[in-house]
Amino acid sequence: MTAAGARTTLRRTAPSAPKTFRKDLSMIRSFPHAGRIAGLALACLTAPQAVFADVAPGEVWSMFRDYLVRSGYEVTAEEAETGGDLRVSYVTLRMEAPDETGGVLVVTMDEILFEDAGDGTVSVVLPGSIPAEISGMEDDDVEAVRFEIMQTALDIAVSGTPDDMVWDYTADAASVRLAELVRDGAPVSREDAAATVALEEMSGRTSIATAGDGGQEIAQTVEAARITYDLAFAEPATEDDAEGADAPATEDDEDTVPDRFALSGRAQDVRITADSALPEEGGADEMAALLDDGFRVGFDMTYSDGETEFTGQDASGTSSGRTASNGGSLSLSLGEDGLSYDVRAEGMAYAITMGDLPIPFTAEAEEMRTTLQVPVMPSDAPQDFSLALALRGVTASEMLWSMIDPDEALPRDPATVALELTGTATPGVNMFDTEAIEAMQAEGRAPGTLDTLEIAELQVSAAGAELTGEGSFTFDEDDLETFDGMPAPEGSATLTLSGATALLDTLVSMGIVGQDEAMGARMMLSMFAVPGDGEDTLTTTIEVTEEGHVRANGQRIR
Q1: What pTM was estimated for this model as a whole?
Q2: CA separation for the pair 415, 400 (Å, rounded)
Q3: Is 230 found in the same domain as 195?
Q4: 137 and 218: one domain?
Q5: Biased composition, Acidic residues: where in the chain (predicted)?
Q6: Across the chain, what does the average pLDDT equal?
Q7: What's 362-383 look like in SS3?
């Protein structure tokens, strides 16, 4: 039983965040807890359909509180029972950033109600608006960032058992909004700092189960009719005068024109699935230790179609654009099996207008895809890795072609750029253990070894010409002398180039390439390539031998 007015405080240090993307946009990098706010928003917006079960209000709060603590929050609240219900008041969630970004995230809720529905389920009532604030960041000028997590008609029902609970939920809308940004002691106007991300007509299910090792297994599914986002940021204008000038700066000076950027868009028929494993103990403040203890997280999102619009402004002028796609997906996962990333979009269309271009640039693409898979845990045996980049079926607008090639001398076939690399590597340390990596580097040792590399796909095609290739290599980590500190490779790659002669002749006739340049290109090709099987086809095989010799079509060049 929970005594009326009892106060509880639980804490656990947050895991360290990777440094990726910290310098992409100066405004965005001021928000080191943005991902945690998004995760908290998803956790708070958990809602219901009744399922036969047997859970009590106190048990639901206990598991939810444990989930927050395992996620890195210090939880403070006052608990009071009224009849069979539980009222949790003055709720404060606090998290300190564990890395050099600094800052403290604080989320507050006046109260959360856990009401016995009388059928073995519990109804959870969250505030319609939940404020959150990040302060104490090691940023030169941003002092505080205040967010608001909001929901409309949120309905949550919890069923199951004390060790395996299911949160079913529905809501008309749920959103996270930037409420205020404080810079240099003053709030920034909404024109210069605004951000809202919203889900509409959403429903979902979250299950939280106690694992055999004492940790928690979490599985989530969210469906929404659409997701919308609206962002607008501006860098503050400087007051520096031009060098050597005595007059005050004006809006005509390049240094005093603020850089502005606005982005808005939507995606339809959004479906999100996620699963994670939170260990009971250990690795509280380091991702490396969390992975050692079995931490795992996976995220998948699909959508049917989407569009984005953006505008940018700086001293050189204004640009704007619009992109659209017929659907796509995003997948992320991290655990002892490695780090993986997969983003895909289909049926894309682009329209971009730059201040110094007389016409908008428009293009379409059939597919864009980027995938990455790398091992992260130390191993005695080689582990698989892969990287793939692809932009397929790219076509430019007829208006753009008419400016470049009004006589239609060049083939206007869709262009493609694709590369896929696979291989094996042996990590020597946990790839998130920065101290171990720095120690190995200080000793002149690499944190891992590259064992094999395969060119699974290489394709570049445009204007009637195409380059394809494939190959495979092994690497000798014990031989760092043959190739000046690089592990000695052994293997071969074969490249095939078709349509190059015809394309070169066309470019010469158009005046884009001169006769001398064309002759030099042909001489280079003849040195490293031989005629292939088809018309206007060249091929070359580059081989690296065990002795360190490099041969092109059997001719030694190193």
Answers
A1: 0.80
A2: 15
A3: no
A4: no
A5: 237-256
A6: 86
A7: EEEEEEEEEEEEECCCCCCCCE
